[in-house]
Amino acid sequence: MLLLAAESEGGGLAFPSLDQLINWTPIIESIGFDKIALTHVLSVIIPAIVFFLAAQQKSLVPTGIRTVAESVVEFVEKQIVLPAIGPDGLPYLPLLLSFFLFVFFGNITEVIPFFQMPANARMGGPVVIALIAWAMFISVGVKHNGLSYFKDIAWPSSVPLALRPLVGAIELLSTFILRPFSHAVRLFANMLAGHILLVTFAVLSITVASGWMYVLEVFTFGGLIAFTAFEVFVSLIQAFVFTIIAAVYIGGALHPAH
Amino acid sequence: MSIAVLAAEALTGDEVKAAAAAEGAGFAYGLAAIGPGIGIGYLVGQAVQAMARQPESAGQVQTTMFLGVAFTEALALIGFVVFILLKFA
User: What is the ipTM of this complex?
Assistant: First the structure.
């Protein structure tokens, strides 16, 4: 109803096409280096600098930037590695910490002014880190269980004999093909949905910015602010979820009994 | 003959295809949201109950809950991707 009213006022609702929402003109034309690539580079460089500076401190009591770095490490250790894998998952803490920070910085650019685009709303980034996690859990499984890792998945001994071929086929499909797919799509679709949500409210705010319809800004611009705050939360949750699922996969390969 | 059929005759093949894609896109996301909606509601409800009964295990329950929500949510998100593919691709 409101949109129809807006349309009859002559403003008109012009929703941009998906191409306009996620494709950016390259900053460096020759190699197609655009905002997405810049975000990916920054999400490697910024954590690296923070952790390098934190590691320079030699004092016993952490201060300043080292407090930040240590609390991030402790969060990943206490909330992700220990519950999902257990104490023998601690060797994988550096990998999972890198996942967490890379995904988080790729997400949080969604709400940072002048970026306004989550790098993970393009499939390229999530698919690469999901494939790294995939290669990691398979190699952990082979390293700790030998080739019987594949045999236990394809021919599960805890299942009645008649059902083993069926369960084995489903398990093979879900473990080696659907896992990396759903792992990447979960992050990608969440960030794309959030981006489209923010764009929708921004477009509505512009559409109603004329005449008496300024009253509606309470809902549209208020909604934009509320959803921006919500997207900060989603960025953190998605980084957490991506990392903990990678940890669960590694943990499952480490102790195939459960 | 109904007006809808008469109107359909006036459309070209591409327009019919686009209309069907738009309709399918709406159904894809709408239907994909039902199951995960029920699932996440049940999951979070049970998690809240567990935390109320045993507040000391709240941390463990919360981590497991987020994990379960993430797995359940994947189905709705695949529906969302199908929506995007039908609507824009």
Answer: 0.76
